[in-house]
User: Fold this.
Amino acid sequence: MYWQREFLRSGATLPIGSYWREDLPKDGLLGGIQFHVRGTPVIDSMLATEKWRMLDFISKVEVIGDGTTVIKSITGPMAHYLAWLDGGGANPDKAFNYGTSTFRCHLMLNFGRRLFDPYYGLDLSKFKSVEVKITNDGSATSFPGDLTIDALCY
Assistant:
């Protein structure tokens, strides 16, 4: 058994204050999905706000089977924490609260006990369709344009 990496989407648009959704492949065993979300903030917009990292704007990460079966539904910070619990270590986020540096957020959504778990995962063939959906609650006050997202499946 070996693990294969495949980009589900690269450079897709995640509209501010909205969501991005994508259908997962029809079959295969999915061990995890890694997300890379990035965007450039309004100059100094996060100096004195509660939300000052890209991670704070990810309000929901969902995986839904057959349109109604919720497989996973967690917040961005919870996905970050669960990846750490699964032995993933620190995610290489870039979170400055000054200037207009590109903010980056990396999320790992595992379907086993950890990444590359040989015994547990998500069997996509058990569903007619499976979709992944990421919702953000950003606004034009914080970001002048849409965010960009990459999704890498294992």
